[in-house]
Amino acid sequence: MLSQHRFILWSFALFIWAVPSAALDLSKAVVVSPENVSGPEKKAVTMLVEEVEKRTQIRWERSSSWPPSPTPVIAVGPASALNSFAGEFAEELSGDRGVDGAEGYRIRVKRRKNTPVVLVIGNDARGVLFGIGRLLRVLRMGPGVVTLPDNFSIATVPRYRLRGHQLGYRPKTNSYDAWDVARWEQYIRDLIVFGCNAIELIPPRSDDDADSPHFPLPPMEMMMQMSRLADEYGLDVWIWYPAMDPDYGDPKTVEFALKEWGEVFQKLPRIDAVFVPGGDPGHTRPAVLMQLLAKQTENLHHFHPKAQMWVSPQSFNQPWLDEFLGIVRNQQPPWLTGVVYGPQVRLSLSQLRAAVPEKYPIRHYPDITHSLHCEYPAPDWDSAYAATEGREPINPRPLGQATIFRLTQPCTIGFLTYSEGCNDDVNKTVWSALGWDPAANMTNALREYSRYFIGDRYAEAFAQGLLALERNWRGALLTNESVFTTLTKFRAMEQSASPQLESNWRFQQALYRAYYDAYTRSRLLYETDLEAKAMVKLRDAKKPGSLTAMSQADAILERAVTERVSTHWRARVFELAEALYRSIGMQLSVPLYKAKAVDRGANLDNIDVPLNDRLWLKERFAAIRDLPDEGERLKRIESIVKWTDPGPGGFYDDLGNLLRQPHLVRGAGFEKDPAFLNSALIDFGYKSGRISWWNNATSLYDEPLKLHYDRLNHGARYKLRVVYASDVASRKIRLVANGNIEIHPFRAKTIPPQPIEFDIPPEATKNGELTLSWFREPGLGDNGRGCQVAEVWLMRISARL
């Protein structure tokens, strides 16, 4: 039952909806559409009527002819059939050509006997579909009310011909594996409303488990249903089909693959294209892979004669990339439709476009779903977020995604985004909106998103809230005071929300993020302060003695667990996680909801990960207590207290800490280089020991990571202490000073990390400046990482003779 306060607010909202200014009242409208239209056009009209009813409880009447009485009319159809649905306005509209082009539409508002008429005219069947989607976005809807601004008019066509999203029904996703057919149809409709014209499916066998505890249907059966749904709405169907078997040079393996893929091709009612990634997963030499795909294309055409075959050079090392480009340029395979640019490609998108013959279009496969260890990581992301929210959090990044789009998309025919679940729902909308109009204003796009999915009353507040969630993630969390303000904004919406809105999964997702962010910042402030107080005890260890000082420090640090901060926010995060599981099967915990893994969006399990060096200090204390000598114990404690002290005339950088990297050469940065192919990237990996080892600065592929020092003492000698971070110790690293002085050759890293020291030759610092450049082994493929440096001390050791 609503409280009296909330009932008043809800009643006031109804009043606002009921008396809009300068708006057409369409609550009693009749939807007129021709009888003889295509199946997708009929589905489009059904979508219009049903989606309005869900939001208003108004069921519009449908008719193939205009009502004789002066009733509001919404007339919908293709331009080729104007005479059959546009009534008395057919002749006038036949001269109003709108904008020519596939999938385009125009929406016009007219008057008939002083009653409103809204005409949605598609240039083709998809134009009808997307025209209806646009109408749904601009309608003002509430219980018992449907209105439209009386001056609304638009004629538009999409800029990019491919605008789609990957919908992977598999265990690895954070929600999709729990969705039934009805949920998928609803989500496909939601994507259509914002201009999506293609979906990408995943076959039953991929780089994932064969089953999920959440599956309502077996993977092959659901794949068939999703292909059917897309076909009914007239959307293109792509398949992301990795070639994962170990040896396609073996005729038996090829025979098996042709049979397996062919069975999938045969069962799907619609396939427009197949995309085979060169890697991630899969690891087949290009010459062998291309031979396989020539045969698979023939296999595909047995069942879908017009379907296309696409391939990407993902994860290729330099020799394999050269071989791939040589095949495409020199052989120009006739079966190949185009090339896909996705994660783990060594080239930039513009470089790939320049390297591939013009006859082959480029399709983008942008990763919009991950926040770290990915193609387009969240820039300047704080380690506290990386340690808790992880790789696949709920991640609205509207302005960041717009930056990525506008820098990369002109080289392509469009995109099908890489998604691992509905955590990236806002990002899908951003890409769809920009795929239609690259100049689209993101705030306006978010207002339409909010109006359609959350409600007209919250259109502005929720849109601004999504922008605020993105700002929560920019820069050092210790100093980002807006995080608490963001939560205040969402709590205001939460307190006035109707029961229907409270059960809306998009609203729940935003609330979850707002509470989680605020709780994380509250803990970071608290635990940082606890560590500072513990260090005071350690600095004064001589007075009470080493053992007493460590016990005192231990007790202070333990308050992070025994005296938790902001427990009400923490409790609300858990409540919202439960609500999301019930509303859309979102799996935010492994033990509670049987998520695939913690790094697959199950960040509820990381909510209390320490945000200071408590665990590392406890390990050190245990080792120090075992020492028999008090003097040695005090010496070890002093090394802890002075860990970051480079000594007189020295310098220290914690390269993963946004507040402690003064010598890092950042490069162009996200705004010009969102994939960080030529910029330093803050990365995360190893999760043990000191917090400073959990994060690092890295460069990708063959680009060096650089630190630059100036104003060095001309008469001094220096020593370097460095900690190399790594998630894969086998990736070697090399250090060079000033471009030509080798400090050390390629060497493997250690896990766990440990400080190592090197002398800096006097000639490297004789001019008062020093540039240090780290490299990983050249030409490697995979994800490009490996040149990862966590901490650096440049220490002055003596005056030069």
Task: Give a description of the structure.
With 801 residues, this protein is of the alpha/beta class. Helix 19 packs antiparallel against helix 20.
SSE blueprint and pairings:
Elements lengths: L3 H15 L4 E3 L4 E3 L6 H18 L4 E3 L9 E6 L3 H4 L4 H5 L10 E8 L2 E8 L2 H14 L1 E3 L2 E5 L4 E3 L5 E5 L14 H13 L4 E4 L17 H15 L2 E5 L10 H17 L5 E5 L8 H18 L4 E5 L5 H14 L6 E4 L7 H7 L6 E3 L18 H6 L9 H11 L5 E4 L7 H12 L5 H12 L5 H14 L9 H14 L3 H4 L2 H35 L6 H17 L4 H18 L5 H4 L20 H12 L4 H12 L9 E4 L26 E4 L6 H4 E5 L5 E5 L6 E9 L8 E5 L3 E7 L8 E5 L1 H4 L4 E7 L10 E13 L2
Parallel strand pairs: 2-3, 2-4, 4-6, 10-11, 10-17, 11-12, 12-13, 13-14, 14-15, 15-16
Antiparallel strand pairs: 1-8, 5-6, 5-9, 7-8, 18-27, 19-20, 20-27, 21-26, 22-25, 22-27, 23-24, 23-26
Low-confidence stretches: 1-21
**What is the overall pLDDT average?**
95
Reported for the largest beta sheet, the result is: 8 strands, parallel
Q: Beta fraction of the residues?
A: 15-25%
How many β-strand stretches?
A: 27
Structural class: alpha/beta
**Span between N and C termini?**
84 Å
Helix content: 25-40%
Short structural description:
The chain is an alpha/beta fold and 801 residues long.
Give short descriptive properties of this protein.
801 residues, 40% helix, 8-stranded parallel sheet, alpha/beta, single chain, 6-stranded mixed sheet
